[in-house]
Amino acid sequence: MIQAIGVRKSFGSLEVLCGVDLVVASGEVVCVIGPSGSGKSTLLRCINRLETIDGGTLRVDGDYVGYRRSGSQLHELRGRALARQRADIGMVFQQFNLFPHMTAVENVAVGLRTVRGVNKRAATERAEHHLEQVGLSDKRATYPEQLSGGQKQRVAIARALAMEPKLMLFDEPTSALDPELVNEVLEIMIALARTGLTMVCVTHEIGFAREVGDRVVFMDQGRVVEEGSHDAVLTNPQHERTKAFLSHLIRS
Ligand code: ADP
Ligand code: MG
Question: What is the position in ligand 1's atom list of the atom closest to the CA of 39?
């Protein structure tokens, strides 16, 4: 589903991704961990073409991210064509990013209408189905400011699911939540993982990684330092930097 080879990305003179290699199979759940500033969010943002890459290749489901192939040539996608490619990749952010002036059901339906061209009635029906999936049918007409953080994040997950993505990216989806609201979001993510959806989750929820992560990837300073099963990386890390990071995580 994802094939990243030698992906590089700089912001000005700062190289943030220094040749990232990552392969994610269809149906796999991969958890990415690593210190702040190691490039985890940037990697997700490149996979979803919120950022362009400076080097290497990045493919999702066989397609070069941000490009269309015709014969042996690659043409850069723009506008609606790019929006359509991106719509196949769901993204859930730490800060939810809901539209404040739209109700929960409108937040979930809006992408269906604008990107997929689904009519209002059908989009609303699908949005209601996905709100039910995240246990929020009773909040359909509620605006984000009246929702708890956990509820906002569940609406954001429903919004991503409504597009029927082939891949979901989660960027620290529980980091902004009060501790007692973390589990309601993790439970939805666990249920999704069990449906066979391909997921890449940047998360420091080690329990989640152990329960559903097929693989754990440790990033540091713009590189994948270590990857493997959760037992291999979390219980028996080989690299000093992984060990140091995990010992911080466990102490905090
Ligand atoms: P992580 O998610 O692992 O904490 P990020 O991918 O957010 O790391 O950031 C990696 C580095 O890139 C950091 O040093 C950050 O300050 C920098 N960075 C991220 N986005 C931008 C940007 N749009 N412009 C400049 N620097 C950025
Ligand atoms: Mg980040």
Answer: 6
Question: Are 222 and 56 within 8 A, CB to CB?
Answer: no
The answer, yes or no, to whether any atom of ligand 1 lies below 6 A from the CB of 73, is: no
Asked if residue 39 has its Cβ within 6 Å of ligand 1, the reply is: yes
CA of 16 to the centre of ligand 1 (A): 7
Predicted confidence at residue 235, as pLDDT, reads 92
Mean pLDDT of 182-186: 96
* Ligand 2 centroid, distance to 195 Cα (angstroms): 26
Kindly report the three-state secondary structure assignment for every residue of 111-176: HHHHCCCCCHHHHHHHHHHHHHHCCCHHHCCCCHHHCCHHHHHHHHHHHHHHCCCCEEEEECCCCC
What pLDDT digit, counting tens, does each position of 211-252 carry? Answer: 999 999 999 999 999 999 999 999 999 999 999 999 988 765
Ligand 1 atom 5 nearest Cα: 39
| Nearest ligand (C-alpha, residue 34) | 1
Residue 34 sits at φ, ψ, to 5 deg, of 155, 160
The string of pLDDT tens digits covering residues 38-80 is 999 999 999 999 999 999 999 999 999 988 888 888 889 988 8
